[in-house]
Amino acid sequence: SVSAESLNPTSAGDESWSPPYHPKTDDQLARLRTAVSGNFLFSHLDDDQFKTVLDALVEKPIPAKDIKVISQGDAGDYFYIVENGHFDIYIHPSGSVQPGPGGLGNKVSSTGPGGSFGELALMYNAPRAATVISTEKSTLWGLDRITFRRILMDSAFQRRRMYEAFLEEVPLLSSLKPYERAKIADALDAIKFPAGATIITEGDPGDAFYLLESGEAEALKSGVSVKEYHRGDYFGELALLDEKPRAASIVTKTEVKVARLGRDGFKRLLGPVEEIMRRTEYQFDASKSPTAS
Ligand code: 1OR
């Protein structure tokens, strides 16, 4: 559970805190900017926060495969962003790494360029939830615990909490693990539309996927209503799945709140439910049309 300290990352009397400053070469800065550009935890920072984080990050070269960057059960010190290379993630059911073969537990996930790991122990003041180990020579950037908590955590935490309950209710996402939904929450943007607004225009290229959080909307093909959307429904996936123009317009019928996921997030985070999305049929169902009687 969430301790009081983790909701209030800055303990009293730290007015004297100054963020770590690790000078960087132009080459390092350029590589770092590319590495964080795809990371959603950074996309909601203002310019000052972004600069503080860039200054605080430290390059951590991982010279080979089989290097354990994080051991399950340890205390958390750094959050990591992957610039290049690859890492496997293991969880041992006993809660920590065990001696001997198979001691890492079961492989649950993996991550590569633009990905990140190690946030959980810092967010929740908990032991490391998993072991993270390199599968090749790699480059990481590390952010210390205090800078992570002071600058990145509030926005990440709020976003995860804000969307936790809603994402649990979305049928499309019900097969995902809670941690996978948390990663989706990091990447969502909340947008409101008044009644009668066009969210998607038929024929346009697609750049985002949407989950409907509240209100009602409908899909129109050449001006004819073909489908209605309610809380928990999704739209905008077809153009992204097959790189096709928008197959319909989506227009709001009431005031609407949507959670928007950009193309990168869609590709990276919704892979596990791609087959479910592809199974959705879009035949015109006259019995459900508002014009049928
Ligand atoms: P950490 O600080 O606990 C280990 O250190 C990191 O592995 C953890 O933060 C996450 O960033 C990362 N469950 C828990 N941690 C995971 C998982 C995970 N995947 C990556 N990490 N999964 C749940 C398995 C039941 C895998 C979900 C696909």
TrEMBL record:
Residue ranges of domain Cyclic nucleotide-binding in the record: 41-169, 172-287
UniProt-annotated binding residues for 3',5'-cyclic AMP 2: 237, 246
Keyword field contains Nucleotide-binding: yes
Molecular function terms, GO-annotated: cAMP binding; cAMP-dependent protein kinase inhibitor activity; protein kinase A catalytic subunit binding
Keywords, ordered alphabetically: cAMP, cAMP-binding, Nucleotide-binding, Phosphoprotein, Repeat
GO-annotated biological processes: cellular response to stress
GO CC field: cAMP-dependent protein kinase complex; cytosol; nucleus
Family: Belongs to the cAMP-dependent kinase regulatory chain family.
Protein name, as recorded: cAMP-dependent protein kinase regulatory subunit
Portion held of the full protein: 119 to 411 of 411
